[in-house]
Structures are given as C-alpha cells and as structure tokens.
Design brief:
This protein is an alpha/beta fold and 287 residues long. It is built from eleven helices and ten strands. The longest helix is centred in the middle third of the chain and has 16 residues. Bound molecules: adenosine-5'-diphosphate and magnesium ion. It holds the Pfam family ABC_tran.
Length: 287
C-alpha cells in the first residue's frame, strides 16, 4: 500500500465524558483511492473513530492530520477538514433538517460561502450522483427511509470531499436498496472519491472493499480485505464470522477446484464465473 495518506490519526485517544477510554493510542490512516471497510462488533468504536476522522469529536491526546498537516480545531481548520472529509451518519434523521431535499443538500456549500451558481451546480451534481434529481423539491419528511439516506449522502457529496465516510450505510436498506447504494459508491469511487464504510457485514466488506480495518480490543488491524477476513483469530477478537466468500474459497482449494494463488469468489456471481471457467473446471477421471 503506497497510496498517499489523506487523513491520519496518530497516537489518538478518546473517552466520552466520565467514561472509560473508547480508543487509546490509536494510529489509523485513510489512503487515497483505497476503499476501506471498518469492521467490528457493536460498541467496538467504529462510530467514535469515524467522528474523530471527520472532526466531530476531538481526540483527548494525539492528533488528526490531513495530508500530513495537523488539523486545528478552529473555524479555519475545521472548514479545511470538512472540505476534505465528510461523514454520513448512520441515521439520516440525525442529519436532515431542511424543508426540502434540494435545500438540505445545499446547506453545506452555502455554508462555505460559495456563489449561488456554484452552489446550484454542486446540488445538481450531488442529486444526480445519488439518482434523486426527481426528488429535489420533495419535503424531506415525506421521503422513504432509503430516499432520506440518499439525501443525507447527497448532502455530503455536495461538499466534494476527497474522503467520504459512511457509518453503516446499508443498515435498514432492502436488498435492492443495498445494491443501488453499492453502485452509487462505485461511481463515486471511479470519479476519484475515497470511500470508507463502517459495517459489521463481512460479506459486504469482502465484496466491496480493497482494505479492511478490524477493530479488536488491542486496536485496529488493517490490510488487504481478503487476507484480513481470512484471519480467524482476528475475526474472533473482533466478534465477526468468516465471510461466505472466504469459506467458499477454502472449500474450493481443498477440493482442488481453485489454484492456491488464484483469487477466490467474493460473491455468488464470482463463484458462478469461476465454475464456468475452463481452467477451474474439474477434469473428469477418464479424460
Ligand atoms: N455519546 C456517547 N456517550 C457516552 N458513551 C458513548 C457515546 N457514544 C458511544 N459511547 C460508548 O463508546 C463505545 C463505542 O461506541 P461506538 O463508537 O458507537 O461503537 P460502534 O459504532 O462500533 O458500535 C461504546 O462503549 C459506547 O457505549
Ligand atoms: Mg456505530
């Protein structure tokens, strides 16, 4: 992994008021262009870590840096951070507050003091990216959950962040809504946005991410997603199970149906393609 580090926490510790340390002496990096899945059991600190990365919380010790420059928690420093990193919180109702979709999405760019034309262009672009242009004038309280989720993401996208952080974005979406969201995140990635997602869905992480960060009691462990999600010791510590695709890969290898060096399936579609490929089809005993 040699991609430049966009955002980093160094030696960061954090405790909520009167509470025990949630994260201590934490080093954590977000690298440009690497889709990163942040995984861990409930209460392991995923949301806290994301709020530290996006400046909503301030580490008690240690610090946050954007492209190597320490973040200052004054107006100027936080504006610089917010134009680089945007967090979409888990519950859209914690994020949406304006009367209409377009008004809500325009809030961030307006707050940056951008000229009207620029604000309009960004809102149009963000609504199009989330496929909700037709909802622009709709009152936010009349939207479905999935539509509210897309509106909240559009609000973050309108800031044109280099890093988009999403806290359990697929939670509460139906299967079709999840697929649409993954497609949208794929388009954002192709247009140059680095995407970080917290989830406890190991199958989703394996399909979607380049890298995985597992939050274990002894700190986060980060690496290429397939390698990290094969580590039963780390999965156990993080309270997670073996992803379906890794289990299938292990079975295929044990049966001699997949070379040790060949990448395993990450989805049922991958598995179907693998089984259809001549190189991996079992050779009949008599031929
Ligand atoms: N606002 C808060 N005040 C006090 N404690 C909190 C608050 N938010 C989270 N915590 C505690 O911090 C720990 C980490 O929580 P969180 O970051 O929400 O984990 P996750 O997102 O992985 O479920 C938990 O023990 C939780 O109870
Ligand atoms: Mg959480």
């Amino acid at each position: 992994m040699s991609e430049p580090v966009l955002v980093a926490l160094r030696g960061a510790s954090f405790a909520y008021e009167d509470g025990p340390a949630v994260l201590s002496d934490l080093d954590f990096e977000v690298r440009e262009g690497r889709a990163l899945a942040l995984l861990g059991r409930n209460g392991s600190g995923k949301t806290t870590l994301m709020r530290l990365l996006s400046g909503g919380l301030r580490p008690g010790s240690g610090g946050l840096a954007v492209e190597g420059q320490p973040v200052t928690y004054d107006r100027k420093g936080l504006t610089r951070l917010r134009t680089t990193v945007q967090l979409v919180v888990q519950d859209p109702d914690d994020q949406l507050f304006a009367a209409s979709v377009a008004q809500d999405v325009s809030f961030g760019p307006l707050n940056l003091g951008l000229p009207d034309g620029e604000v309009r262009a960004r809102v149009d672009e963000a609504l199009a990216a989330l496929d909700i242009t037709a909802l622009a004038d709709r009152p936010t309280h009349l939207l479905s959950y999935g539509q509210r989720k897309r509106t909240a993401i559009a609000g973050a996208v309108a800031m044109r962040p280099r890093v988009l952080i999403l806290d359990e974005p697929t939670a509460g979406l139906d299967p079709d809504g999840q697929e649409r969201l993954l497609d949208t995140l794929g388009s954002l990635r192709r247009s140059g946005t680095t995407v970080v997602m917290a989830t406890h869905d190991v199958d989703l992480a394996l399909r979607w991410a380049d890298d995985a960060a597992l939050l274990t009691p002894s700190g986060p462990r980060t690496g290429p997603v397939a390698a990290m999600l094969s580590r039963t010791d780390l999965l156990r510590q993080a309270g997670l199970r073996l992803p379906w695709g890794i289990a299938a890969t292990q079975l295929l290898r044990a049966q001699g149906l997949l070379e040790d060096t060949a990448p395993g399936p990450r989805s049922p579609e991958d598995l179907a393609a693998l089984m259809a490929a001549p190189a991996t089809r079992p050779i009949p005993a008599d031929g």
